[in-house]
Amino acid sequence: MLKRRKLSQSTSDLKTAGRLGMSLFSGQDAVESWQWQGNPAAVTEILRLNAMPLAYFHGRKGPVFSPLFESAEFIRELAKHQERCH
């Protein structure tokens, strides 16, 4: 079960974060059939709270990733993650 900090994070946010996390760990690139659901900032926070390795999203393709990659929150958290790992 994914952790979340705020009740304002919706079921859609949790579902999207879960799917993205599963795609990371399964190596699954077939996400074309997915529809983005939720708020990119909330999804980023859920991923961060659950210690998902954000840098592993690098190279992922598909429209489902666009809202995440274009999110200022994700870009900021990714930079923090990369700074800690290098």
Key attributes of the depicted protein:
single chain, 86 residues, mainly alpha, globular
Structural class: mainly alpha
**Rg estimate, integer Å:** 12 Å
Instruction: Classify the oligomer.
Output: single chain
Strand percentage, roughly?
A: under 5%
Task: Describe what you observe in this structure.
This protein is mostly helical and 86 residues long. The protein contains 4 helices and no strands. The radius of gyration is 12 Å and the shape is globular.
Topology, pairings included?
Blueprint: H1 11-26, H2 40-49, H3 66-69, H4 72-85
Helix pairs in contact: 1-2, 2-4
Task: Give a nutshell description of this structure.
Helix content is 51%, strand content 0%.
